[in-house]
Specification:
The chain is of the alpha+beta class. The protein is built from twelve helices and 14 strands. The protein has a five-stranded antiparallel sheet.
Length: about 290
Amino acid sequence: MKPAPFKYFSPTTLDETLDLLAQSGADAKILAGGQSLVPTMNFRLAQPSVLIDLNRVRELFYITPRDNSIAIGAMTRQRAVERDANVAKIAPLITETMPFIAHPQIRNRGTFGGSLAHADPAAELPAVAMALNAKLKIKSQKSERWEAAGNFFTGLFSTTLQPDELLAEIFIPPMPARTGYAFTEVSRRHGDYALAGVATIVSLNEKNICADARIVLMSVAGQPIDARNAAQNLIGQKLDAKAIDAAANAVDAEIDPASDIHASAEFRRHLARVLTRRALTTAVSRAK
């Protein structure tokens, strides 16, 4: 298949890009890495009349440490994020997650912000952004706003982005001292979409009592799932095997997996429990 006809624009500045979005509105699609958009256009699942290519907008390519935080431009290649020493130091959960994303050839072209804006429920980065309490800078011709990653994803391939808006930056705040992290997933083959996956963050106080916890699951609903109730039950507890088992079992009530040719809903529920248990065990160990 070939894509339906469209007008193509290749702006070189962010202001020019926002002007084009304001003019085109819902008729436009943003081309970042193109690893998801181009195949859907070729199959005519997406038929934008305007394509705005961001690959010459150099303002959106950066990784910038800010004290103990880090800012990542939306067009930064996933491979660059994977290899960056500052990301590994400030947000090691991201570094741990990146090799799970497809294959190096895909990560060479795929962008950090593009994955978030695409909002695939089986993608790793939306879940990780939520676990890290990332803040997203969203710009339009008329305004700029910040959106918490936890509020950004609204459903299957859908976000709070308006037709004239662009995801410009991802800001990762610092993790507290004595905080552990872990990401894990199961797929049929390495590089395939995950049947289920989980990102976890655990913070302990000086007595090894849980002060904060986050459990975010992917590929078990139409969007990333922040298992808040399961995580809340960990706070104030000493995180032994019994407490971790209880939290892993509790995620079952917060997910809504579907059955397909790759896995049944019940198998995905089983994976969610098993992977949550593994990830929490690793995160607690690292926190100590």
